[in-house]
Amino acid sequence: MKGRVDVSAKISMRSFLTSAIAVVAAIAATALSGCGKEDAPSSSTSLPAASGNISANTFTILAGSELKDLEAAIVDASRKAGVEIKLSYAGTLDIVERINAGEKFDAILPPNGAYPSLALQAKPAAREKLFYSRIAFGIKSAKAQSLGWDRKSPSWAEIAKAAESGKLRYGMTNATSSNTGMSALFAVASASAGKSEDLSAQDVDAKILKAFLSGQKLTAGSSGWLADSYVKEAVGVDGMVNYEAMILRTNEKLSAADKLTLIYPRDGMISADYPLMLLNADKREAYQKITTALKAESFQRDAVSAAFLRPANPEVAASSALPSAAIAELSFPNRLEVIDAVLASYQSQWRKPSTSIFVLDVSGSMEGERINGMRDALKVLAGADTASASARYAAFQNRERVVLITFSNKVAEPVWVKFDGNKIEESRTALRTQADAMIAKGGTAIYDALLSAQDVATQELKSDPDRFVSIVLLTDGESNVGASFKDFQAKFPNGTPVRVFPILFGEGKVSEMKQLAQFTGGRDFDGRKAKLAAVFREIRGYQ
Amino acid sequence: METRKLIAPALAALLLAAVAGGVWYSNTQLGADTATKAQLQLDQQKQVAVRGLIGSEKEAFFADPRVQKALAAQGITATVDKAGSRSIANRYDAKQYDFGFPSGAPAAQQLKSQAKAANVFNPFYTPIVFASWRPIADILIANNIATKLGDVYYLVDLPALMKMAEQGKRWRELKGSEAFASGKAVLVNSTDVRTSNSAAMYLAMASYLANNQQMVQSQEDVDRVMPLVAPLFLRQGFQEQSSAGPFEDYLALGMGKAPLLVVYESQMVEFLLKHPEKLKTPDKQNEMVILYPKPTVFSKHVLVPYTPAGERLGAALETDPTLRELAHEYGFRTGGDTKGPETWAKRGVKVPETLVEVIDPPSYEWLERMIKDIEVRFK
Fold first, then answer.
1. Residues of A numbered 83-142 whose beta carbons fall under 8 angstroms of chain B's beta carbons: which are they?
2. Both A377 and A479 in a single domain?
3. Terminus of chain A with fewer CB atoms < 10 Å: N or C?
4. Closest residue of B to A337, CA-based?
């Protein structure tokens, strides 16, 4: 068993998220100016349509990442209807952020239409729901029995109580990057407020929210990756919040002991309704062909129903594996300010706080634009830029801890910046000062730096086991001083205490960074292509 | 029937204007009458392609090959784009479209004045009803809010239901609510009133009740009524923009999503004609029922032509018996010898042939002011 489950490090939130985008965007801008030695394509991150060689006739769709499973069927059905489509993937908030930032897609296919409807700056020209999936709590059968939830569905308050008392440890995606996490958060918020509708920020019972979130042991930036992580690390957790469709598909990969029972909290849930939203009004004709093809009985039966999604075409029955009992549906808030307020509280008050360790390369190759970019980016993290579209989450939040570990030949002493209550402004100033003090010089001791970072992480988890701790590695070159990757691996025969999320850019060694991500249970992200802001935003959800 | 007496002065003035306009129109046109008739016949033989903007609930009708064939027999090829009715009223564009076909007289009234259309057509109409489920109807009966009138349909005491909504009652607090003991508020779900007609019609009904059973027709009325009526919409949380979305949700997610949903009778009838199995299910909670609020309003589907070609389509829909029969398939009531309910009853979907308490919606102006008031509160 991996000890990582309980400590699986997660840095903060959207605050951090968005600010970090800027960091990397700035860094990447400089990194890209260097010459890449490794050109093997590496990313598991989807590229924006604009960067590929896509013909003008291709209909481009930015879709929820869990739809990758359906890609072949969607592409095939559309092709038969005479439309070539190209799918790219992102989390719900990301989808909106990217469209608002000016990326061009002909349509989006988010899991839930509510948030995009409220937050998109340009309203869609048409929308059509393609299928549905309820969000459920998948809980191991034995656990469900011991809690009595197989006989009577629990309320959210009962779930929160079980989480608080340590009887329920679960996985859930990050509410500021993925729809399942966000929907569950709003479901608990509504239920705790005793309301099914018209939630306002003051209604929310923070105690229940905090209790509920104290049981979260596994986080992810997307529902699909969460399911994969559950398959790998099922031993340490009792279940996960996910789409019922995803849970049933995951069950097919699990041993009997790890299989999940679908639990729908009795005060209600929020369902995903997958609207295809047309953004490019000039492609209306192609859009109609696609929706007709995807709502046709054959597609709804052979692709939708077969994947345990609920068909939107009433002629097609839902899979018999899905319960047909009435599940109260809670409303999504209808005001952006309420969503913002709840997400902001989630970040700064309710969720388990995070410690984010930044391992930053200040070797000679970083000199000039690269180091300047890194400085500027850190300043953005410190709240220097409030004019950007994502400014409402741009600055570090209360309770967060940031650790900067710079390295060249040598690894500098970790610099701690704690964001606590009334001293947030001071902390931001401190971070800006740190950024200005960085000087690029010398070699690249990546693994010495990472060893130091893992030490910091271990101590942090020891003194504060309820924190999410993780490491981001930004380097533009190969390790040429100190410990090697092999030495690093040898130090951790049972896996590292926390995950490492390497970002590829500059002349970094792609294959090694990938292995590093895999070895630590993290993920690599490609910062060399496309829009780095979007790429990095995706990473943030995993921390 | 007191409602019938309550024609607002504003509406009366409008009617007068319309009549006067008609008189003027026929006088000036009279001389050219014979020539016009001959021209009309010639036109009829000519093929025309028309393009229009329609309310989403008529999309399937226009897509039906039988409808296309019947229109082709009249020399008409119709292409349609769909939009919310309020947005149709705000998107008059004679360059792009030959006609607008919103659901609801107030939107049509606005469109007519923009299009300066001499004639409008009223091919179909349908009452506003609540789509619901057998267990919900039973709970409403237990609480003296509903009466069962047929296998499929019930009459709902709307003032009593509105009172419950106002009191913030939850389903689990009602008598006999075991089958839906949910913390969900007793609220009627609707589409987004800012964009969609069915919600605007629900607003018309609710504002009428809040205004001591009188149509809203002054700013004082609006000011008095809105604090009572706006929460019916604001409390619903996120809402869909057109009627098709929530109805799909109702079908796909069932009672838990939508215990009570404002829909057109046509949507329910069309679906039940195709799915008689939903009238009687082994498991009661999946039985669909129609609740007729008392009072209700008719949603008149008014075709406003912008061009002569649009006018031809309007005339065809209004008078062609084949097209009328096809409209019945889609749950619309029509004029003519057969109006719809008789046909449906033969196929097991028995709904009332006539409705006793039908009120008129407020004029476009006052309805628009109420919607704008809600719009402001949403922000």
1. 113-114, 117-118, 126-127, 129, 132, 134
2. yes
3. N
4. B379
